[in-house]
Amino acid sequence: MSRRLNRYIIFGAVFLISLALLVTDVQSKTAAIPHGEVALKASPVQEEAERYLSRYLMQYHFRRVPINDSLSQEVLSRFLDQLDETRSYFLASQVESFQKEIGNSIDDEFLAGKVDAGFMVYGTFLNQAKQKMRFMIDLLDTARFDFSVSETFNLKSEDIAWPSDQAELQDRWRKEAKYQILNLKYSGEEPDGEPREVLVKRYKNRLSLLEQQNDEDAFRAFNYALTTSFDPHTNYFSPLDYENFQIDMSHSFEGIGAKLQNENEYTVVNEVIPGGPAFRGDLLKKGDRIIGVGQGTKGNVVDIVGWRVNDVVRIIRGKKGSVVRLKILPVSQGNKGPAKIIQIVRDEVKLEEQSAQKEIIITNGRKIGVITVPAFYLDFEGQKQKKPDYSSTSRDVRKILVELKKEGVEGIVLDLRNNGGGALEEAVKLTGLFIPEGPVVQIKNSHGGMTVLRDKEVDVAYDGPLAVLVNRYSASASEILAAAIQDYGRGVVIGGRTFGKGTVQSILKINRPFNFFYKKNDDLGQVKLTIAKFYRVSGESTQNLGVTPDIKIPSFIDTEVVGEDAYPSSLQWDVVSATDHLKTGWLSGDDIKVLNEKYHERVDKDSLYVRYLEDLDLLSSFRKKEFISLYEPDFKVEMDRIQGFDAQWNEEDDPDILLTQSAAVVADMADLSGKSMAEREVAPLQVNGK
C-alpha cells in the first residue's frame, strides 16, 4: 500500500472520528427540542450532502464567512422571514424559543451534516400553516363579515412583530380573509363562483399541499436560507433540483419562455427569456409573483401559492398555440394587490427575436438609429466549429451598424433595458465596437487575484453620437458595457440605475474525496457559488450600486424590491485600483451638463411626459401604503385607481417615453457646438489609475 494511500486512510479516519464527536455534541443540543405533529427527518444522503456543502462554501465562496454563532443567528432569522414573511404563522413565543434553543447551534449542525434544527422549525411552520388553513376554511364557511366597519389590513406585515398570542394571530387571519374577499370582488378577476366559495376551495387545495410536504421540502427550504446567507446568488441544488435548473423553459418545451424560482411561499419570475412568448407580449416581468394558473381562456385559475416550483412549471407547460392564464402580483406594484390575470399563448422561443434588432426614429429633424439588444448571446458550438454564420451579439450589431450608417443615421441609441446579461465575451466585444483598443472589465477572484478582459480590436465600428439606455433590469454584462462607455467618455448613459449584479457564479458538483469509503453512489447534488466580482476600468465595483446614468429618467420599476441592494445578504460595493485606459475625448463633464439642461427644458414642456410623472407619483404612493382599508367603498376606490393606471400605461399604442427621450438626447449630442460630435477633433487622454 502506498504512503499516499496510507495518509488518505489516516486522514479519513481522523476526519470521521472528529465528525462523530461533533455530531454527538450537536445531537445533545437538539435532542430536547420538541417537535410538533410533523416529524420530518433528513435522510443519510441529505446529511452527507450537508457536510460537504459546508466545506464548499468555506473553501470556494468569494465571501469568507466564519461558520460561527453569528452565522447561526443570521440563518435562523432569514429562515423565519422566509417561512413567515407576512408574520401570520409563528407566534412571538415560538420565535423566542427558536432563538434560545437553536440560535447558536445551527453552525455546529451545519459542519456536522445535521439539519435537525432546520427541520424542527420547518415542522413547526407546517403545523401552524395547516392550523391557519383550517381556521380560514371554517371562518369562510361560518362567519359573517362586516365590510361597513372602519378597519385596515397591513400590506407591509413583514415589518411588524410576530403576534403575541393566538387571539392576535387569529385576528390577523380574519382581516386577511376580508382582504381576500374584497380583492376577489374588485381586482378585475372573474372568479368561478362567489368569492367565499372560491377562497374555501383555494384554502382546501393549499391544505392538501401542506399535508404532502416531505423531508425534501424541508431540506430545500432550510438550505436556501443557509446558502443565501452567504449571498443571494449562492444556492444548493439537490439532484432533482439541478435537473430542473437545467431545463430552460424556452428551449426544452413549448411554454411561456420564463424561468421561475421559489421565494417563500411564492413562485417568482426569475427571468423572462428574450424571444419567448412572455417576452413578446411584455406582460410578465422579472420579480412578478405567480399565484394562480388557468388553462385556456376560460379554465378555472388554480391557486398555486405554496406549490413546489417543479409542479408550477409542469402545469404552465403545454402545447404550442394553447393558452395559459397566469394570475400575478405585479412587481411594479410591490407585489401587493390588486392581482392581475394575464393571458399568454404558448410558443417556442424565436431565435430571431433574441437577436439584436434595429429601428430608426426621427427626432428634432435628425435620424437616430436604435439598436435593441435583449441579451448577450453567443453560439459557442458554432464559434468552436468556426462556422461562418454563427450567431453572436457583437457580430449582429456590427452588421446593423453598417446598415444604419448606410441609411444616414446621425446617432445611435443602444437599448439595453431588461437585458439581464449573458455571454461576458460578447459584452467585451460589443463594447469594442465603440471604443479603441483597451480594457473593458476587471475580475477579482476569491483569493484577490485580478484578471483584466480587453477589447483587442484597434478599429472602431462606429464613432458617432452614442447613448446607452438602461433600466433597473439591466444587469451583469449590460452593466459592464454601460460602465465602460461611461468610463471612456464615449457616450452618455440614460435611464435608471442598473440592477447592481457585479458577481460571477459557478456551479460545482459535490464530489466525495474518498470514494472507497462508500459503498453507495448516491448523487449529493450541486452548489452554485459566487466566486468573483466585476470591477469597472475606473476601479469601482458594479456590485450592489450598479451604474448611475448621466441623464436620469424615472420608470415604473419599483427600485425598493428590484435590484441587488434589495437583497439583505448581497455583497458590498467596493473599489480596486483603476486600470490604464484611454479617454476617447467624446464627452466632457460640461457636455453632460448641457445635455441634462436640454433634456429638462424639453420634458418640462412635454404634456405626455408630465402625465407620465404624475402617474409615477400615483404608483409610488400606492407602493408606500402600509395599510389598505377594509371598508368596502374605500377599498373599491383604491382598486379602481390602480386598475385605471394599469390600463392607461399598458395600451399598445402608448409611446415608449424612455426611448423617445433617449433619441432626443442623441439628437442634442449631434447638435452640440453646431455640428456632429463625430466631427470634433478628439484628443485621447491617458488615464493612469486616477
From TrEMBL:
Keyword Protease: yes
InterPro entries the UniProt entry points to: ClpP/crotonase-like_dom_sf (IPR029045), PDZ (IPR001478), PDZ_sf (IPR036034), Peptidase_S41A (IPR004447), Tail-specific_protease (IPR005151), Tail_Prtase_C (IPR020992), TSP_N (IPR040573)
SUPFAM superfamilies: ClpP/crotonase, PDZ domain-like
Domain PDZ: 246-323
Pfam families: DUF3340, PDZ, Peptidase_S41, TSP_NTD
Molecular function in Gene Ontology: endopeptidase activity; serine-type peptidase activity
CDD domains, sorted: cpPDZ_CPP-like, Peptidase_S41_CPP
GO biological process: proteolysis; signal transduction
Keywords from the named record: Hydrolase, Protease, Serine protease
Keyword Protease set for record: yes
Record's GO cellular component terms: outer membrane-bounded periplasmic space
Family: Belongs to the peptidase S41A family.
Official protein name in the record: Tail-specific protease
